Amino acid sequence: MPDATHALLVIDTQVDFLPGGALAVPGGDAVVAGINALMDGFSAVILTQDWHPAGHSSFASEHPGRAPMDVVEMPYGPQVLWPDHCVQGSPGAEFAPGLRTDADLILRKGFRAGVDSYSAFFENDHETPTGLDGYLKARGIERLTLAGLAFDFCVQFSALDAARLGFEVAVRRDLCRAIDADGSEAAATRAMERAGVRL
């Protein structure tokens, strides 16, 4: 029997983050089979889904004169501007073809137009909760294993928040892929190691 206190958290494994997608993560499609194979070993599986309204404030298209990967200052701090991606109800927001979706919970994030949401636990203001912490604690979950996309953004922020909230956290590095903008992959690795996340 799988450990009832241990959950698998699959981050944003969606069409727009796969090769050919609006915000393609190199090799993003390579994680799907391995994630599927992991699922039966966990008593709880949670999938997160990036779920932006059209015209989201993190889209470069909403900032005249700015390009994707530019960084702007938002009321909650620095924000990377992205190509329009994972727009609610669009094909790009769908889960990766072949990804098992027989999960205990599908958590949608990034649906507030004025604030982005990398983490599965908090919006990018680091204050507005998604409700995942309460759900996991109500289920008696104490340990989390993370996989998915992208290692250096949504996986990293989710892992750091989970550690800060008191969960024991591991990231399956082989089942993640990184965007690696300006050394972000190495920086993410260092930040997670410092926070006690097992890679």
* Strand numbers in spatial order across the main sheet: 5-2-1-6-7
The chain-level mean pLDDT equals 96
Order of helical and strand elements:
EHEEEEHEHEH
Biggest sheet, in brief? 5 strands, parallel
Strand share of the residues? 15-25%
Report the radius of gyration as a whole number of Å.
16 Å
Distance between the termini: 24 Å
Shape: globular
Count of individual helical segments? 4
Helix content: 10-25%
Keyphrases for this structure?
alpha/beta; two-stranded antiparallel ribbon; 22% strand; 199 residues
What does this structure look like?
The structure is a single chain. The protein is an alpha/beta fold and 199 residues long. Helix content is 20%, strand content 22%. It is built from four helices and seven strands; from the N terminus they run E-H-E-E-E-E-H-E-H-E-H. It has helices at residues 32-39, 132-138, 151-164, 184-194; strands at residues 6-11, 44-50, 71-74, 77-80, 105-109, 143-149, 168-177. Strands 5-2-1-6-7 form a five-stranded parallel β-sheet, with helices on both faces. Strands 3-4 form a two-stranded antiparallel sheet. Strand 3 (71-74) and strand 4 form a beta hairpin. Helix 3 packs parallel to helix 4. The two termini are 24 Å apart. The mean pLDDT is 96.
Gist?
The chain is built from four helices and seven strands.
SSE inventory with pairings:
Elements: E1 6-11, H1 32-39, E2 44-50, E3 71-74, E4 77-80, E5 105-109, H2 132-138, E6 143-149, H3 151-164, E7 168-177, H4 184-194
Parallel strand pairs: 1-2, 1-6, 2-5, 6-7
Antiparallel strand pairs: 3-4
Helix pairs in contact: 3-4
